[in-house]
Design a protein that fits this description.
By secondary structure, this protein is of the alpha/beta class. Helix content is 43%, strand content 20%. The two termini are 24 Å apart.
């Protein structure tokens, strides 16, 4: 029996190249879950193998900026000349349906979400080492050395933000990282702060202070 009917907002974040997307896909491949992925919107160019509405919603810079003015994002950030953001309406609908809404976003956006939704579950994905992160970035083969240098510099700054997250998960093996995140989600549902009201209803207790 789940005492917390409302879904959790789960933020998976970390430096670029740490493998957030790979871990998230492994998490969703696990059986018996109620996870739903919140697809972000971006102005960056679509990469080979990607599809609009699957990896991202790809829009123009003008359309994105118009949405910012209308307050239609839970969070948004700009990096290397491109915008990234989370559509607010979709997230709220899914949470009310009791789904665990998973956001896979950059650090700046994650901190914005924490401010707006204090009870979200913040998970910071880290590599086993900085060398491992560099190797992952270069193995993509989709970006110039200058862009990779910028991402490494940004990652060094983002590592210092880790204390603001609720959990740190090392992506040493993808399956292990996914298992750890699923364990975190299950534990969060059992937290007293999330489940006590439903528990009192079940036992017919009106005065929660007794």
């Amino acid at each position: 029996m789940k005492l917390n009917d409302k879904g959790l907002l789960v933020v998976i974040s970390g430096p670029s190249g740490v493998g957030k997307g790979t871990v998230r896909k492994a998490l969703f491949d696990m059986p018996n879950h109620n996870l739903t992925y919140s697809i972000s919107m971006t102005t960056r160019k679509i990469r080979p193998g990607e599809k609009d509405g699957r990896e991202y919603y790809f829009v123009s810079k003008e359309e994105f900026e118009d949405r910012i003015k209308k307050g239609l994002f839970l969070e948004h950030a700009e990096f290397v000349g491109n915008y990234y953001g989370t559509p607010l309406d979709k997230v709220n609908e899914q949470l009310e349906e009791g789904k665990e809404v998973v956001l896979e976003i950059e650090v700046n956006g994650a901190l914005q979400v924490k401010e707006k939704v204090p009870d979200c579950v913040m998970i910071f994905i880290v590599p086993p080492s900085k060398q491992d992160l560099y190797d992952r970035l270069t193995s993509r083969g989709t970006e110039s050395e200058e862009i990779i240098r910028q991402r490494v510099e940004k990652a060094n700054k983002e590592f210092k933000v880790a204390p603001k997250y609720d959990y740190i998960v090392v992506n040493d093996e993808v399956s292990n990282a996914a298992d750890r995140i699923m364990a975190i989600i299950r534990a969060e549902h059992a937290k007293t702060s999330r489940s006590i009201h439903k528990y009192y209803e079940l036992i017919g207790e009106n005065d929660e202070n007794e």
